[in-house]
Model the fold of this input.
Amino acid sequence: MSDIDWDAVAAEAVDILQRYLRLDTTNPPGNEERAADFLAEILAAEGIPSRKLVSAPGRANLVATLPGEDGEKPLVLLNHVDVVPAEADQWQVAPFSGVVKDGFVWGRGAIDMKGMGVLELATVLTLKRRGVRLRRPVRLLAVADEEAGSDFGVEWLAREHPDVIDASFVIDEVGYGAESYLGVERPLFGITMAEKSPLWLKLRATGRPGHGSAPNDDNVLDRMVRAMQRVQNWERPAVLTPPVADSLRAFCAEGYIDLDPDKTPPAEIAERYRPLRSLLTNTVSATGLHSGMKHNVIPATAYATLDCRLVPGYEHERFIKEIARVIDDPKVEIETVFAAESPSTSPDTELHAAIHAVCSAVLPEAAVVPKVSAGFTDSRTFRRRGVPAYGFVPMLLSNAEQGGIHGNDERVSLKNLRLGVEVLYKVVERVCAA
Done:
């Protein structure tokens, strides 16, 4: 076969990504069907059939498979098509413009995760155009609703179409690489092996309503403010879980940290390397406080929302009991809004070895390290079924690119798209080609 013109592949990926970013798939409400139709049209033009699986009006998932010859289960290239909201007045460009500016493609979803979705699409298109014989099928799976818990996406597929998620391996989001890390000017590729588990809680309370001119001792807003203050002041200990320990050992071996995790207390590591703190502790972010209807009316009800992320393996019920003890008020009820757990993935697989080999060949100066994600992904659904799933986005993100994830001015560099199409294709070809 002829050599691949990676610059041409990257240029096509940029064009597709620009058009893709112009589709507003903000979740809520999602409207992911428009993205599924967009991807299906590109695939159809190349003679690649796809299925659109609709979970609710406007909510759709797309699956397209290049068949293999050996009867093996597919490698799934997983991506989600929904994006989080954007505050347009805080952006330098319109969030859904998809413009190329200063060497970047700008738009909500450029990193999380339409950019990676386009890398996966480019891989499938390149395999098809080159007529590569596959021993293992390659499946592109573009899903809805990841940003809101996946009820209309991969969790729905697991219930209604389990055959779609029956796989040998999965490549998913996070596992981002970086130009530098923890102050060390050496690039790295990350492979996410585990992730913290989400536990979204709602605190509810009721009290005695009345006129604002007549304070009482059962003001529900006072009660909720006290509860939130106790949560805010709660100092949770650092915990070194096995997946995080494996990651820190690799960081130490590659020179990114100079503390041996087997000989250093977790609290000392968290204090010395602040970016690692979230991986060593259970975190709580207050995301909402709601009460009141008029300036001179004491309200009867109040509720607050907490986004808790637990270190790998930490039991949800244990954490809920701990936070109840901290609040120490039986009139504040704790409701679980969303919870999910994810096992870790072993590095002892053909896919993991291929990622290492390809990254080392394409960029010998870069380290390749296991990582733990502070956020959760759709990989958890596969991992619970025993499918090895790795977060692996073959880009070396700058600080500006990392800061755009769920933030303002989200963008991905043209250089990273060029790197990504080559690395991802070579990994997939290595584990799937006959």
About this structure: The mean pLDDT is 96. The two ends are 14 Å apart (CA to CA).
